[in-house]
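From: lab user (bench 3)
To: helpdesk
Subject: output format question, protein + inosinic acid

Hello, I'm new to running complex predictions and I'm not sure whether the block I got back is the full result or only part of it. Here's what I submitted:
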Amino acid sequence: MGSDIIRVENMEFKILLSEAAIEDILKKLADRINKAYAGKTVDIVIVLKGGYVFGADLCKLLTFEHRIHFVKFTSYEGLKSTNVIRNDVQLTEDIENKHVLILEDIIDTGQTMDHFLKQLETENVASKALCTFLLKPESLTVDLDVEFVGCEIDDAFVIGYGMDYNELYRSLSSIYQKI
Ligand code: IMP
Ligand code: MG
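Helpdesk reply: Thanks, we reran it on our side. This is the complete output you should expect:
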């Protein structure tokens, strides 16, 4: 799909970030993260499902040693959050005394990451930080400390680059925003 406008059901989406724009954001983000963690071994937690594309792309640019883990949360249905967070996949590895870096595709209300960070409070980690490719600052309903942000966007639904509408469109290489 090379078009700048795509139709999904009766909605229109316009291109927000092209593949080149995404690559640029990734490089800048990786640069900051590489500086922050130079010389350390880091336990990276990719948040599924949405984080699988961003997580894979970002990790290829990291220059420090890292292990990769997955968790899976579900909160969205259609165009908005249900405010009920399901934790379908949990961490199985021991992260005690580890540097934990969480990679999320997008932070909207912040409820999912608030929930996960509260789970981690009982683990004795050496450090924890949150990295998201996209952040919708106007949508946040909780006070969340997000260390690394790829790009801030306004409060409109997006698809592509891992992000879905009812489980579809995750494989689009660019990011599209609902008009
Ligand atoms: P939050 O708990 O409201 O911050 O939402 C977190 C999760 O909802 C993200 O990890 C995404 O999986 C999903 N989500 C939030 N906004 C969007 C969007 O605009 N498009 C697709 N998924 C989204
Ligand atoms: Mg997600």
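A quick orientation on your result: The pocket of magnesium ion (ligand 2) is lined by residues 47, 50-51, 104-105 (CB under 6 Å). Let us know if anything else is unclear.
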